[in-house]
């Protein structure tokens, strides 16, 4: 892929992640768990994971979180998003590397969703200075498995199309 094409695709993925984030904020989701979301912008991270290098995907995650904060967040949402996004990315990258032939896109996505929630719980424990928030984690894990499955399925069917268009 040429450098210009790569920069263009990275820019498009960051923009799509931002649009998905804004769309998700408008959805009135009656989740059983307060604060749980679908994680639609994680589709972008998962797709990028299969198309780009470590540094490029890290750049996409960081830009997506920063721009999301500018367009509709706060300092606290930035802290939760950056912690969840980075931990999720590192976990997905690691699992993809070690289990390339044994872990599907859906499995990697579910690991990313669980890791994202763990990152957010760690930040929440630090912010409120109470480790008891960890007792909320099992409820978040149930939501993470469902949303991770949805993001994984979506990414699985989106990847061949994007690879074909940009190869």
TrEMBL record:
<dbReference type="InterPro" id="IPR014535">
    <property type="entry name" value="Hpre_diP_synt_I"/>
</dbReference>
<dbReference type="Pfam" id="PF07456">
    <property type="entry name" value="Hpre_diP_synt_I"/>
</dbReference>
<keyword id="KW-0472">Membrane</keyword>
<feature type="transmembrane region" description="Helical">
    <location>
        <begin position="43"/>
        <end position="66"/>
    </location>
</feature>
<protein>
    <submittedName>
        <fullName>Heptaprenyl diphosphate synthase component I</fullName>
    </submittedName>
</protein>
<feature type="transmembrane region" description="Helical">
    <location>
        <begin position="107"/>
        <end position="128"/>
    </location>
</feature>
<feature type="transmembrane region" description="Helical">
    <location>
        <begin position="78"/>
        <end position="95"/>
    </location>
</feature>
<feature type="transmembrane region" description="Helical">
    <location>
        <begin position="135"/>
        <end position="159"/>
    </location>
</feature>
<keyword id="KW-1133">Transmembrane helix</keyword>
<dbReference type="InterPro" id="IPR010898">
    <property type="entry name" value="Hpre_diP_synth_I"/>
</dbReference>
<keyword id="KW-0812">Transmembrane</keyword>
<feature type="transmembrane region" description="Helical">
    <location>
        <begin position="7"/>
        <end position="23"/>
    </location>
</feature>
């Amino acid at each position: 892929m040429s450098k210009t094409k790569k920069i263009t695709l990275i820019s498009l993925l960051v923009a799509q992640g931002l649009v998905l984030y804004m769309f998700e904020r408008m959805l009135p989701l009656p989740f059983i768990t307060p604060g749980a979301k679908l994680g639609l912008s994680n589709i972008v991270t998962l797709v990028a994971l299969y198309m780009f290098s470590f540094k490029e995907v890290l750049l996409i995650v960081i830009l997506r979180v920063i721009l999301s904060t500018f367009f509709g967040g706060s300092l606290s949402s930035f802290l939760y998003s950056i912690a969840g996004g980075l931990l999720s990315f590192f976990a997905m990258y690691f699992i993809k590397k070690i289990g390339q032939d044994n872990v599907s896109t859906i499995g990697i996505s579910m690991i990313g969703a669980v890791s994202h929630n763990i990152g957010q719980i760690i930040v929440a424990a630090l912010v409120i200075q109470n480790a008891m928030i960890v007792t909320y984690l099992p409820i978040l894990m149930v939501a993470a498995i469902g949303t991770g499955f949805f993001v994984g399925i979506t990414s699985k069917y989106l990847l061949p199309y994007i690879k074909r268009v940009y190869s």
